[in-house]
Amino acid sequence: xxxxxxxxxxxxxxxxxxxxxxxxxxxxxxxxxxxxxxxxxxxxxxxxxxxxxxxxxxxxxxxxxxxxxxxxxxxxxxxxxxxxxxxxxxxxxxxxxxxxxxxxxxxxxxxxxxxxxxxxxxxxxxxxxxxxxxxxxxxxxxxxxxxxxxxxxxxxxxxxxxxxxxxxxxxxxxxxxxxxxxxxxxxxxxxxxxxxxxxxxxxxxxx
Amino acid sequence: xxxxxxxxxxxxxxxxxxxxxxxxxxxxxxxxxxxxxxxxxxxxxxxxxxxxxxxxxxxxxxxxxxxxxxxxxxxxxxxxxxxxxxxxxxxxxxxxxxxxxxxxxxxxxxxxxxxxxxxxxxxxxxxxxxxxxxxxxxxxxxxxxxxxxxxxxxxxxxxxxxxxxxxxxxxxxxxxxxxxxxxxxxxxxxxxxxxxxxxxxxxxxxx
DNA sequence: AAGTGTGAACTTTTTCACAGCT
DNA sequence: AGCTGTGAAAAAGTTCACACTT
Lengths: 207, 207
Hints:
homodimer; alpha/beta; Arc Repressor Mutant, subunit A; Rossmann fold; 2 domains; two-stranded antiparallel sheet; 9 helices; DNA-binding
């Protein structure tokens, strides 16, 4: 199986399943049926089983799923069995928050360097992570394997986008207000802002 | 027209269109074709026109769209022509960041109160916003119109979820690691975490 | 008996293509 | 001539329902 590649919606749900499984594991649940897990994930059981079929044959007929092993398979499938190196673009309050956040490290996402365009920020250190001038990006990218670039500034975010893309960063989390898109399918951009998330809610409330 | 209600994917794209229009407006662009706007939004022009048709007939045949008036229509449709009152659950670094963020206010999202369960945080004030004990939630909800509850704590986020739902908060932005779902279709929950966003990228990179 | 995995049926979403307005 | 708005066609995603395994 696994001929077709995973649709975006399925991918998003797989991530939800993983998160919910991690929470269940902490409550010492060992086995679960697609019916019960689906309920906790806001989907129906057929959807959940179909989604999981993109990952493999992970359950036991008549029994259900081992939480430990399903979690393991999902982490593997989602690229979360390994660690990833991140760089930050933009010393904003949000950027500083991310550098100091320990929970991302626990999940295998490590900020190794930060970049800014403002002279006064260069050389600062947050949680052991140094802030470099954007000019120094190419040196850093050559010295360490950079997997993901996180853009956390409202002022000229496209400067960081362009620099990251130019230096071969393949995955970008854009947290600025304005979403970006590139034609190059070698590059993946995730756009998120609190404003966009809240707008989904304001639409719902307006009804 | 406007018989069917807007699909989730369309809604998400409409929000993107709005954000991109706001950026274009700043660059003093006045008119744009569906082709050009679509390009900036990472979709094709048929998709864009179909999406906009859920909002209304907003363009001029042979000409394109007025950015000012399209933006106006979208803001209206998305519930962003009005202001919304927010409360925060959880005095975490992320929570404090949100209370202090001025850009949300500029977009019409106002935090009016924050709640925490830890004694030492009660009574603190961030950016003019007071932190109350969660016990006081019902008083606050009775005194002011609360539109959106934002949960920003990793420790027992469900305590805030339950309290918010019980007090009739209809829209919730859950920023904790574990996504929540409720059966009640009167209530809308948006789940977001940096970990989930980064996992989408790790999946892409793993390929 | 219970619950997975999956083709087939159904539903929704996307893309095409063009009539119709400016 | 140019570009929107939209039915109709095509594609994709979801749900059903049941054969099959434990």
